[in-house]
Amino acid sequence: MHVFHALAEHDHEQVIFCHDRQSGLKAIIAIHNSTLGPALGGCRMWPYESEEAAMQDVLRLSRGMTYKNAAMGLNLGGGKSVIIGDPQKDKSEALFRAYGKFVDSLGGRYITAVDAGVTVEDMTQVASETRWVVGLPDRSGDPSPVTAVGVLEGMKACLQTVYGDPSLKGRTVAVQGVGSVGYELSKLLHEEGAKLVVSDIFPEKAERAQREFGAQVVDPEAIYDVECDIFSPCALGGVLNDDTIGRLKCRIVAGSANNQLAAPQHAGAMADRGILYAPDFVINGGGVINVTEEFNPAGYDRARALTKVRGIHGKLLQIMAISQREGVTTAEAADMLAEQRIETIGRLSRFYLPPGR
User: Fold this and answer.
1) Catalytic option among 26, 68, 80, 156
2) Is 80 labeled as catalytic in the residue annotation?
3) How far is C-alpha 327 from the chain's CA centre?
């Protein structure tokens, strides 16, 4: 990989490679854009097949955080980090404390949090070395339940648009991945009266959803072929591609996974098939809204956070309206919304402020 070419492709600001031999830490921190404020984004731990795959993932994820934070109306830029390793076997206190030292070395340009493969307990160890961490147990905690609320609200907005009725009662939802967010979402969907079909690469997680919510379990590869109202990707990214889109038997795609589109043109491929796509960085914005509430001078308040997260319903309706008005895909409409805010706020840098102001 030509690193600087990769950074220039989407105008990334900074990439930091982190290595600590004693703990085994191999991590990459990517800061995409800090126009709106310090870059905030979670830390993902995954057994990437190559260092190049890890690099590609962190660049895509950090760019997605820029757009997510902008679309959610937050005064934050976009960043992300990945730790190369198996979260089932390679975790240690030393590894996360070493990671925390690297985060701290950035002096607040990057604020870290949980993501796939990393828990709030892991973040507590990171916090031993840096204050630039959110989502700790004694503050906002695990963002997964709040993220799930935002996804549920987004689904209702999509149902209102497609069927003229936001109710999930009797609707069939195929959930791909029932880990942290997928499990919480399945719980909410079950409470709303939806019929669940689930899959997960870890059989015990799918079996838990079957046991607790009466979900039908299918093999991970078979989830794309399920006849349903909503296909909900809640695992890793790149699942909407040339091989899978043609197999979908749904009217709506709405899930919590980041970077669901393998390439931008796949949003158009779904639109051509009459499938409404809820842009991932909008519908899954509840988690970042939740942790950002830690910055409130009055202190973190879950009720206040949930009120803001439920605004994702209206945000998606706004994006669908832009899509119809401008004749673009919903993914393009979401990008337009985020880019307009970044450009508008970025212009404020023209104003000179005297020192000390």
Assistant:
1) 80
2) yes
3) 26
Residues 123, 92 contacting (CB under 8 angstroms): no
Concatenated DSSP letters of 213-261: H-PEE--GGGGGG-B-SEEEE-S-S--BSTTTGGG-B-SEE--S-SS-B
**Chain-centre distance for alpha carbon 282:** 9
User: Which amino acid is it at 120?
Assistant: V
* pTM for the model: 0.88
User: Per the domain annotation, does 134 fall within a domain?
Assistant: no
Q: How crowded is residue 137: how many other Cβ atoms within 10 Å of its Cβ?
A: 13
Number of domains observed in the structure of the chain: 2
Q: Average model confidence (pLDDT) for the chain?
A: 94
Q: Are residues 114 and 259 in the same domain?
A: no
What pLDDT, in 10s, does the model give residues 126-158?
Answer: 999 999 999 999 899 888 999 999 999 999 999
Check whether residue 113 and residue 261 sit in a common domain: no
| pLDDT tens digits along 42-82 | 999 999 999 999 999 999 999 999 999 999 999 999 999 99
